[in-house]
Here is the input.
Amino acid sequence: MAEKLLEIRNVTKRFGGFHALTDVSLHVEKNERFGLIGPNGSGKTTLINCISGALRNEGGSILFAGTEIGAMPAYRRTRLGIARSFQIPKPFTSMTLLENLCIPLEYTAHAKSHGADVASEAMEILDQIGLADRADKLPADLTQIDMRKLELARAMAAKPQLLISDEAMAGLSANEVDGILEILFKLNEGGITIIMIEHIMRAVMSFSERIVVLDAGEKIAEGTPDEVVNNKEVERAYLGE
Amino acid sequence: MKSKGHLLHIAVALAVVLVAFLITNSMENRYYYKASYVVLQYVVLATAWNILGGYTGYVNFGTAAFFAMGSYTAVALIKLWKPPLYVLLVAGGAVSGLLGLGIGYLTLRLRGVFFSIATLALAVVLQMFMTNWEFVGGGAGTAILKPRSVPFFSNYDEFLFFVMASLAVAAVFVAWLIENSWVGRGMAAIRDNEEAAECMGVPILKLKLFATTVSGAMMGIAGAPFSYFVVFIEPSSAFHLDYAVNSLAMPMVGGTTTWLGPLIGAVLVGTAQQIATVTLSAEMNLLIVGSLLVGFVVFAPEGLVGLFRKLRGRAMGRSA
Here is the structure.
């Protein structure tokens, strides 16, 4: 059996009386392409907020490469190797694209040697993702698709082992979706484990090797894309009785 | 290349200090020293404010608290054993720096306007405290005697002017250093989007505490010589709202994202206030600040520096 990179055991998260996550357990293997799906409000984003450190889980434990990270501040989790993109892009608005990428490079990849020459490295990543010609532009000048690419590029610049892509494709055209998928496949080939959260079924089904389905804060199914689409519980969650 | 840039900046800084020294031995009218002292004091305060407000994006309404804590630390020490001025500067900076650290720790979980309200409340609480502390004069205030003479300078006002000029240069230099370091870039990331910054590996709590501490310490240092300057100190003048309003307005007028902004803003607005105080009335200067602040927030939210950049960008676009 492959090595577990991320392991979530009985994680619970409440907002007041509302149970956003109840006893969720799952694991992601090293270099896996993992899909996380579920209807709106099922707790997907809450779960990755608990993984990335934006929220603290109340019960259970989260292990990354064998280390318990549940109590760590977000920046330390990033330095351990967890990077994420945001559902609604959150670029550093006063900085050029190049400078946007320099932040994670400087603070994560080169956290121990502040002042390293990160600009050329940032340029390389922009080049890989196809934004090199806009390196001096501000995020406000970007189109929606380029904004999504910037989110991914910035997450890549943190040199993660695990990349969490939170709805990187919402609102994009079919061609643009393929473009993002291609980038994610390439990253995965390069050795990065990827968790994809997505509503675009075509994308998540073709991308994921394994999928977990959440509904109302609970895990209701787990398996290969085929197993999941044929699961009665999943059908009920999405379509009702 | 990088070290050459540093050397140039250090040379310019030392040149400004030298010029300030030469002025003290050539200019007669004491009023000019007093007026320049106030403007230079605002260069320090505006620059200090900008490290937290402009670079990191946390609007501090409590400048007066940090400034006055520096002043009152000095007053307490003067009452105790009259140490030399540099001791007062260090002590004032240390107390206000610690205050910044403590306030940062308590309030930085608050964002946006809530942080600002907390800092304003801090100023009110501390003013109450000082009003009731008899040892430093209490509500009635206390007179402070200036040292009668000081080497190299013909009188103490000239010396204070020189000290404040040096502090202004040092403050701007510190701001420049921060802005051009990884610390400054991390602060800018926090200002732009705190959540994204943390997820990109920026230790936001540490950097914010650094900002509140440095900013507070600089304000305290600016306040330390204040009692010698005004000779009579009482809480309502040391904690005056002018300090909070001005040190916020000046960077807004100049531009908040660079070290140059608060410098330009403080020199322009500060000088205009001094002129207005003499030619129009003492109350008129606040009207000037108010109008300028409204005007800039509406028409040039990035200040003069931003306005200049935009115009230059346009000119270059046209010629290209």
Q: What stands out?
A: The beta strands of chain A are 4-15, 18-29, 33-37, 59-64, 67-68, 82-85, 162-166, 193-197, 210-215, 218-223. Residues 90-159 of chain A form one domain.
